[in-house]
Write a structure and sequence with these properties.
Length: about 325
């Protein structure tokens, strides 16, 4: 009950700034409490950066923003060792990745070498420089944004890096009523800097540990694997979801169950999260792309075609 109350208090707090996007906000919080990373792909001006800032302000988290550009170097993200003449030794100076929430703005504008600097820290939550490992704080979450239009001079994220994002979301334009509220509230409406604090870093860590203990029945394990493995067998998919996707879907389903006040996962939790967790991991065949097929549609069809836990248990 405490998890549920705090989860919805956080969502309501962020919704004061990001109007009319409750589902997107809750998915971002599920990513946080799953200890995952979030990729937000949308056009400019829809609140991608504001969502990350509002999340950090609500949980007393340290936020660092990195503007990705073609000339950005890996050391500009991870940090660098500098020789200290006073004590005649190298000292490590931390980069902006050492924060609770790292906003990687327009991540696809940096070179692949710089993008790869995030691979280790996203997976292992530590940075290795000159053979020394440096852990990042907990909680830790990378929120990356990219613009689906104006692709000149960009470097698409490789499959290995896309697989490390637990979810890919799109904020989208607000509905008419929400956009009117935004206009009426400016400049006196709720601002990110004035959002009340809902949870501290220690509270978030405790919620992460609590969600990891949510009960999962054997039939749900089978169902998660059945859904993910079905994407690999689809004739329209060149590369299906990996075992990392199965783990991500299970972690997210546990958090969704806890947010609903339950101590166990149900099939509806898995179904609700399958698209944001799996779709960005699929690579379609050229023939499917020519037919304007989308990964989201294929995941939806996979859910319809995959037997539920009761049917799996019967077989």
């Amino acid at each position: 009950m405490q998890f549920q109350q705090r989860f919805h208090a956080l969502a309501g707090n962020i919704e004061q700034v990001i109007r009319g996007k409750r589902e997107t906000i809750e998915l971002a919080l599920i990513t946080l409490f799953s200890e995952g990373h979030l990729l937000i792909e949308d056009v400019p001006g829809t609140g991608k950066t504001t969502l990350a800032r509002s999340l950090a302000a609500s949980i007393e988290a340290e936020l660092r923003r990195i503007q990705f550009t073609p000339d950005l170097l890996p050391s500009d993200i991870t940090g660098v060792s500098i020789f200290n003449q006073a004590n005649q030794r190298f000292e490590f100076h931390q980069g902006p990745v050492f924060a609770n929430i790292v906003l990687a703005d327009e991540i696809n504008r940096a070179s692949p070498k710089t993008q790869a600097a995030l691979l280790e820290v996203m997976e292992e939550r530590r940075v290795t420089v000159d053979a020394d490992s440096h852990p990042v704080p907990r909680p830790f979450m990378v929120v990356a944004t990219q613009n689906p239009v104006d692709m000149d001079g960009t470097y698409p994220l490789p499959e290995a890096q896309l697989d490390r994002f637990l979810m890919r979301l799109s904020v989208g334009y607000p509905d008419h009523a929400s956009e009117v509220e935004v206009l009426k509230g400016m400049p006196t409406g709720p601002q990110v800097d004035r959002l009340p604090l809902i949870a501290r870093a220690a509270d978030v860590a405790g919620m992460i540990d609590f969600a990891a203990r949510i009960h999962v029945a054997d039939s749900i394990f089978d169902y998660v694997v059945a859904v993910v493995s079905a994407t690999r067998r689809s004739p329209e998919v060149r590369l299906g979801a990996s075992p990392r996707a199965s783990l991500a879907l299970l972690r997210a389903s546990r958090v969704k169950a806890a947010a609903a006040g339950r101590h166990f996962v149900i099939p509806e939790d898995v179904k609700a999260l399958a698209s944001p967790v799996l779709a960005h991991r699929l690579i379609l065949t050229p023939e499917a792309e020519l037919r304007d097929r989308t990964a989201v549609a294929i995941v939806a069809e996979t859910l319809v075609a995959t037997p539920g836990p009761q049917a799996l248990a019967a077989t």
